[in-house]
Design a protein that fits this description.
Strand 9, helix 2 and strand 10 form a beta-alpha-beta unit. By secondary structure, the protein is α/β, with parallel strands linked by helices. The protein is built from 24 helices and 51 strands.
């Protein structure tokens, strides 16, 4: 329904748009979400599982309101503006329109003194302060106007004859910013923070890199998730979402609304709805009734901010006159409805009640938008209040642990608008003072900040934040909205051995969707017990989904990727050895796919096995890889194959198909497919020279029994019509394909444990030496393990571990990148596609998403963690785009990196220098893990083992 107000009127006549072919009357300038809501269209799409979804956060954070607009899929209805004749669809088209124009050869670079990310209260204040101090200032915001949630302006579809204080304040600040020379860039999505002076942003669809001398992050917050049964139903939305509909767009999702949660924003929304003609069934406040005891806090509120205190009193008076009950000590328990919201079940101090309504607004607090600050490496801390949240550690003026980066407002620390205004101004002045040292301090703003902090403290004593009990979330309740992961699935993963948030995430895909964990990350952290930043999921570039085509820019490629030096495996400190020694036949050091496979086959040979992994088993390259099942020789990472068929790299051809067969056996034993699909790998050639090389390569592969053949240009297009035209031909390897490494790890780990091996996560081998006829190993925790054999399966750290035993081997590390897109509307491809002369692997997973790899490099940060490079993201997308035209209609949703090994062919088997020592190291470790592990286990048992070409004794 559309709200009424004596002083607010539409600015233009309605225009016509369509939704799934149905005509919709809309107002030019209002959000598409508002137009659809006003017409009663609450179900905007259906998930892959068939569940209906609608508008939820209303600010572009949750990605639930995705629709197709004029053929462009997965557009956020809450941010899109109505244009005459729009054709809107709920489903993704099979052949989507391109999401962006072809980009220029290079991203535009823009330098400035101060870059402000976010133009809400804190960002506007910082930008104004720095600009008025004489700095060149650019302010970015994802929306089409500054103001953020607190100062959001009335949509262009309406005009207000008598705007209230918030509207007036927003207009005044916008005018002041423009007068000071602030350059606004709207429609700006920051997709990556690669350094404090390298902020990658999509501005109105164009890739722009900002190079500021000082950076102020004022990214705001989003409402925290409220995981109750039914919270994903259309008609259940955040209080901020409903307030944006009502306050900015003059729309309500129904005639009767119920509001539940905690804090004064719910009261303000209720008043605005009542004044617009909506029936508010009730406002449910989780905090206990303050009663007479709250008088002291009320007086503190009035003393610190009399205008805001008066607003609160007015809200209660308006609701009392309208007959709207405010029910204290009452929490939402479940949202009910078939296909859309119909009623709220709530718990009151006197029992449960059920309230029927057309829509439900929920607000139980806020989560700071810390993704950019975390991506840059700013220090954060966990705040144990309510659901819990991460906040950026700053000084009073907003300066973070990175001296050129400031973080202010609710995007750094939840504190409300008054604190945001004050801290924003102090940050803007501090940033300017770094560049213009003679600027004076602003004592008045510091006093204002102190008053604002006092007000906020009293406010949250008045509206006491309720505790959050993760155990109270029913197993059937969805926690991750994007991937439809339930609380029960998270708990099952933990019961099966996932010991950290990262492991649970990989086992369940929770937090891997478009919203990047914004709507579930804190809940998952609570369930898994993560109570510090290191335990939370790391932010990934892009920080929000962006069109793949917009970032596709050609970058230099290489013959062999740059090597990296990972942090030492040995701990800085260790406890002295103590207690009785454990004994085993085999100690496997390293819990990746190869180490786990070795442990599995050793245990099946009847040997007692302890597997020691310093982190969690399988949480490194094993689950960071792209899941390709490679058989044919590559244009990269097959170093040495050109030396001929006797080289170690070429001899891999003899074991690749056998390893894929073992993966199928593992899948059968696990009772599921693991997403294994081998429908062939295609290696493309663009030139006659590349075709000649491919012909020689396929001939060698056939000599090893591999089913490889050449495809001419016409046959190639018959086999793979989804490819771009113009390729000279390709090599086709029938045995290649893909699988899901996350499911593969879970299956492998389960089988290892079932075979009787003892898998020890969090166990670092700090010392190891020969001892009699076997080995004595000491853990960093002081434990002692005696073993007859030791298997070095340390991956990139295998060279370091080998040195501990005086048997060095040539192993280096490489940081490599993988990317994934959103799911396509249908099947695009069935093959694994590679390129003879460029770095590329691309395939389509079972979920419909494309997975892009090709050994594009990343880097190690100062803490030794692998990180993405902007150039690698852009370059990888460019190469993929030249091969696969369908990429133009997809968003990239996540890029990540892992440490791979660089070796001159597999290093497998017994080391003659140290009796009882075996090495298990190889490139292409995911594909080759099972067969390499079986070969090493065979050698440990005294059998033939791996071919001589793989022996560590060849060096």
């Amino acid at each position: 329904m559309r709200l009424t107000h004596a002083a607010i009127h539409p600015t233009a006549e309605p225009v016509g748009i369509t939704f799934d072919g149905r005509p919709i009357s809309a107002l030019p300038g209002e959000s598409l979400a508002a137009a659809l809501t006003a017409s009663g269209e609450m179900v905007l799409r259906h998930t892959r599982g068939g569940a209906p979804r609608g508008l939820h956060c209303g600010m572009g954070a949750c990605f639930d309101c995705l629709v197709t607009i004029d053929g462009r899929p997965n557009q956020r209805a809450c941010l899109a503006k109505v244009l005459p004749g729009m054709a809107v669809e709920s489903a993704v088209p099979a052949q989507p329109a391109p999401l962006a124009a072809p980009p220029p050869a290079q991203a535009e670079e823009m330098a400035c003194d101060v870059l402000v990310v976010g133009a809400g209260p804190a960002g506007l204040s910082a930008a104004i302060a720095a600009a008025e101090a004489g700095c060149s200032v650019v302010a970015l915001d994802e929306r089409d106007a500054p103001g953020g949630q607190y100062l959001k302006p009335l949509a262009a579809s309406h005009a207000h004859a008598a705007p209230d204080r918030q509207f007036r304040q927003g207009a005044e600040l916008r005018a002041r910013a423009l007068a000071a020379g602030v350059r606004f860039r709207f429609g700006a999505t920051v997709w990556g923070g690669f350094a404090a002076d390298e902020i990658a942003t999509l501005v109105e669809g164009a890739n722009v890199v900002f190079r500021p001398r000082r950076l102020v992050i004022a990214a705001g917050s989003h409402e925290r998730p409220v995981p109750i049964p039914g919270w994903t139903l259309p008609g259940v939305m955040t209080t901020g979402c409903l307030q944006t509909l009502a306050r900015a767009n003059r729309v309500s999702p129904g005639q009767r609304v119920v509001i539940a949660g905690n804090g004064p924003l719910n009261l303000q929304l209720a008043c605005e709805l009542v004044e617009g003609g909506v029936q508010v069934a009730a406002v449910l406040e989780a905090a206990p009734n303050p009663g007479f005891a709250g008088l002291r806090q009320a007086l503190r509120l009035a003393a610190a901010a009399p205008d805001l205190a008066w607003d609160g009193a007015r809200y209660l008076a308006v609701l009392r006159r309208a007959g709207v009950p405010v029910m204290w000590g009452t929490r939402p328990l479940a949202a009910e409805g078939e296909g859309r919201f119909a009623a709220l079940l709530a718990g009151t101090p006197s029992g449960e009640i059920r309230i029927a309504a057309d829509a439900l607004a929920l607000n139980l607090g806020f989560q700071p938008e810390t993704g950019l600050a975390r991506a840059l490496g700013c220090a954060h801390l966990f705040v144990d209040s309510g659901l819990g949240r991460l906040e950026t550690v700053t000084e009073a003026d907003g300066r973070t642990s990175l001296p050129t980066v400031f973080a202010v407002g609710d995007g750094a620390q939840v504190g409300g608008a008054r604190i945001a205004f004050a801290r924003g101004r102090l940050a803007g002045l501090a940033a300017a003072r770094d560049l213009k040292p003679d600027l004076p301090d602003d004592a008045a703003t510091r006093r204002a900040l102190a008053r604002a902090v006092g007000f906020q403290d009293a406010l949250w004593r008045f509206f006491a934040v309720p505790e959050f009990d993760a155990a109270g979330i029913a197993d059937a309740t969805i926690v991750c909205r994007c991937e439809e992961v339930t609380a029960g699935a998270l708990r099952s993963a933990m019961a099966e051995g996932a010991g950290s948030l990262g492991a649970v995430k990989k086992a369940t895909r929770a937090g891997m969707g478009r919203c990047q964990g914004r709507m579930c990350g804190a809940t998952v952290a609570r369930i898994t017990g993560a109570s510090e930043e290191a335990g939370w999921a790391a932010p990934r570039a892009p920080l929000k989904p962006v069109p793949a085509l917009a970032l596709a820019m050609e970058r230099p490629e290489w013959a062999e990727g740059p090597a990296a030096d990972p942090r030492p495996v040995l701990p800085a400190t260790r406890r002295p050895a103590h207690g009785p020694a454990e004994t085993c036949d085999v100690l496997v050091v390293g819990g990746g796919a190869l180490g786990l496979s070795t442990a599995l086959y050793c245990a099946r040979e009847g040997l007692s096995v302890i597997l020691a992994e310093r982190g969690e088993p399988g949480q490194g390259a094993t689950t960071a890889n792209a899941g390709s099942l490679h058989v044919q020789l590559h244009a990269y990472d097959s170093a040495g194959a050109e030396e001929g068929p006797d080289s170690a790299a070429a001899q891999v051809l003899a074991i690749g198909p056998a390893s894929i067969a073992l993966w199928r056996e593992i899948a059968a034993e696990a009772g599921e497919s693991l997403g294994i699909r081998t429908e062939g790998g295609i290696m493309l050639a663009e030139t006659a020279e590349q075709m000649e090389r491919l012909a020689a390569k396929t001939a060698m592969e056939r000599d090893f029994g591999v089913d490889s053949r050449m495809l001419g240009a016409n046959e190639l297009m018959d086999v793979a019509p989804y490819l771009a035209p113009g390729f000279a031909g390709a090599a086709f390897c029938a045995a290649e394909g893909q699988m899901d490494p996350l499911r593969g790890l879970s299956a492998l780990l389960s089988l290892v444990r079932r075979a009787g091996a003892s898998v020890r996560g969090g166990t670092t081998i700090a010392a190891v030496a020969r001892d009699g006829t076997g080995f004595r190993a000491e853990t960093a925790a002081g434990g002692v393990i005696r073993a007859g054999h030791v298997v070095n399966a340390c991956g990139p750290w295998a060279g370091e571990f080998a040195k501990m035993l005086g048997a060095p081997i040539p192993v280096r590390a490489a940081v490599q990148q993988v990317m994934t897109t959103e799911a396509a509307g249908g099947e695009i491809m069935r093959h694994l596609v590679l390129h003879a002369g460029r770095h590329l692997s691309v395939k389509q997973g079972e979920g419909g998403h494309l997975v892009l790899g090709g050994a594009w490099p990343g880097v190690l940060d100062g803490e030794g963690r692998p990180r993405n490079l902007r150039a690698s993201i852009e370059g990888n997308l460019f190469v993929a785009g030249t091969v696969l035209p369908a990429l133009a209609g997809l968003h990239v949703i996540r890029a990540w990196t892992g440490l791979n090994v660089q070796v001159p062919g597999p290093i497998l088997g017994a080391d003659a220098r140290v009796p009882g020592l075996h090495h298990a190291v190889t490139f292409n470790g995911w594909t080759l893990g099972p067969v390499a592990g079986r070969l090493v286990a065979e050698a440990v048992r005294g059998g033939k083992g791996a071919a001589a070409a793989f022996s560590p004794n060849r060096f």
